[in-house]
Structures are given as C-alpha cells and as structure tokens.
C-alpha cells in the first residue's frame, strides 16, 4: 500500500456540485458532479489530483506517493 503525502489544492468550498471535474491518477476520468469526483478520488491509493475545470482550471486536492 502506497504512502501518500498531501501536496495542496484550494479545497472544494468554492466549486459547484454540477460542472466539469477531472481526477488524474494512473487513469484520468471526467465527472459532471463534484461529489462523484470526490468519491472516486477518495478510493485511490496512488498519486492523484482532482481538478475543477469550470472556467480556469483549479487544483482542488492533490496527494503524491512518498518513498519509504
């Protein structure tokens, strides 16, 4: 199991539920609901980032793998 370290992001408070979201990890997936993007994001145990693509792309949350 990978150890992850928080990298950063602006958080979810300013993002609407309906919109365009992207979760980037080993596979990139698109979502139209923020809650679905977060739910999928939270299942991943690898380097991962979730982006708000409404207007200017904004990094919402990112975690990176750290070596032991």
Structure commentary:
The protein has 68 residues and is mostly beta strands. It has one domain. The protein contains one helix and five strands; from the N terminus they run E-E-E-H-E-E. A hairpin with a 5-residue loop joins strand 4 and strand 5. It is globular and about 40 Å long. The protein starts with a strand and ends with a strand. The mean pLDDT is 96.
Number of strands: 5
Q: Largest beta sheet, briefly? A: 5 strands, antiparallel
Mean pLDDT: 96
How many angstroms does the end-to-end distance come to? 11 Å
User: What is the radius of gyration?
Assistant: 12 Å
Number of helices, counting only DSSP H or I runs of 4 residues or more = 1
What's the short version?
The protein has 68 residues and is mostly beta strands. The chain has one helix and five strands; from the N terminus they run βββαββ.
Task: Tell me the layout of helices and strands.
Blueprint: E1 3-8, E2 18-24, E3 29-33, H1 34-43, E4 48-52, E5 58-66
Antiparallel strand pairs: 1-5, 2-3, 2-4, 4-5
Label this structure with key terms.
68 residues; mainly beta; five-stranded antiparallel sheet; 5 strands; 15% helix
